[in-house]
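Structure in, sequence out. Go:
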């Protein structure tokens, strides 16, 4: 490690001064800013949709909202309802049931509460991370742009990020029932959340976690029986499975596969590609002796958060709040190095800055950033470095000392 060299570097001194200034901000005001931002973005999305003839700018929320009514009216959730919205509902019947909390409200208050709920779960989770005030503030700013993109798209990615971080927190505190509850919830929202169960292997309560997981999968899976018959629920799960199986080959997404495919003409069976990614993900687990290290477990959490995005064949820009949270955890839980700082800044520029009109012109984003999966590039590079370090350097990685 070259921390002594870094401390005399003008670049490092520049970022240290910025970090010190940000660290003096009261964190509670940043939390309030996130919640206010969630509400404001909801209002703007609703306002801009009032002059639209057919659909809205918050189409995802409309999909989620109508899924509840389709559920209670015994309709197929997984077919296109063109007059109501564009695109398809792709989540579980259980998630459709939970959307009943918001579905009964008019669009504006429902959308505000939906976005704010996402923000609240994310904030609660982030507060559990072992960060100093300075690093917590910087971490929040690091994920700010991606969080805004998720809110603008009325997506659930901030919620999923928060749930996976909370799962880590409860495992750290030997509460496997709570931890597995949050992981199973992510599965019933977006199935890739099930990767979070890998965290359970790192703790002595792994058998309790296995039992709890089975129980939660059953309990949450049959929750829609409150409003539909067993035959209808079985039909919905079959329909969901059919949709997902057909959906898998539809695109390459803003993902690692999408990056290699658009840049280098890479072609491979996607199932095999994901399988190889899963095997690489599991490599660090061979270092059983490292499981007891707090930084190792945090970096496995970071690996999960990045993996579920870059290996998602349907990855899109709003999902990158999950990956950037993983990158922030990777960087701010270990002693800083010059190479890690460079990778962090490159990820910030090419993942987050490339997605905002304030920095990247809209034409550039549409012509280059999105079609060429630029957002996935440095997230993927960092993930490969993370896997290498966890597999071959786990003993030398130390938890960053708090100040």
């Amino acid at each position: 490690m070259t921390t002594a060299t870094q401390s005399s570097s003008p670049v490092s001194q520049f970022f240290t001064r910025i970090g010190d200034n940000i660290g003096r901000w009261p964190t509670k005001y940043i939390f309030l800013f996130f919640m206010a931002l969630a509400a404001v973005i909801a209002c703007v999305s609703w306002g801009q949709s009032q002059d639209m003839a057919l659909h809205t700018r918050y189409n995802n929320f409309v999909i989620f909202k109508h899924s509840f009514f389709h559920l209670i009216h015994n309709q197929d959730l997984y077919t296109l309802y063109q007059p109501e919205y564009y695109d398809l509902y792709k989540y579980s019947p259980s998630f459709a049931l939970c959307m009943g909390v918001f579905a009964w409200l008019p669009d504006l208050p429902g959308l505000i509460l939906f976005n704010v709920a996402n923000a609240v779960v994310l904030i609660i989770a982030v507060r559990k991370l072992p960060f100093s005030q300075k690093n917590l503030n910087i971490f929040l700013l690091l994920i700010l742009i991606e969080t805004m993109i998720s809110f603008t798209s009325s997506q659930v990615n901030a919620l999923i990020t928060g749930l996976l971080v909370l799962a880590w927190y409860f495992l750290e505190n030997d509460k496997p029932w709570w931890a597995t509850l949050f992981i199973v919830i992510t599965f019933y929202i977006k199935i890739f959340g099930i990767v979070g169960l890998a965290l359970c292997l790192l703790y002595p309560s792994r058998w309790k976690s296995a039992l709890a997981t089975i129980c939660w999968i059953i309990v949450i899976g049959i929750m829609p029986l409150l409003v539909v018959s067993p035959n209808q629920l079985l039909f919905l799960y079959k329909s969901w499975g059919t949709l997902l199986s057909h959906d898998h080959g539809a695109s390459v997404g803003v993902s690692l596969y999408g990056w290699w495919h658009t840049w280098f003409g890479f072609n491979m069976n996607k199932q095999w590609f994901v399988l190889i990614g899963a095997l690489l993900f599991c490599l660090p687990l061979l270092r059983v002796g490292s499981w007891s290290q707090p930084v190792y477990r945090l970096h496995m959490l970071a690996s999960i958060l990045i993996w579920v995005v870059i290996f998602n064949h349907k990855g899109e820009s709003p999902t990158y709040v999950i990956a950037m949270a993983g990158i922030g955890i990777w960087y701010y839980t270990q002693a800083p190095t010059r190479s890690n700082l460079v990778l962090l800044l490159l990820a910030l520029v090419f993942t987050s800055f490339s997605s905002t009109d304030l920095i990247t012109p809209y034409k550039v984003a549409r012509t280059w950033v999105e079609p060429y999966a630029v957002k996935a590039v440095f997230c993927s590079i960092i993930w490969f470095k993370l896997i290498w370090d966890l597999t071959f350097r786990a003993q030398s990685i130390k938890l960053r000392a708090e100040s």
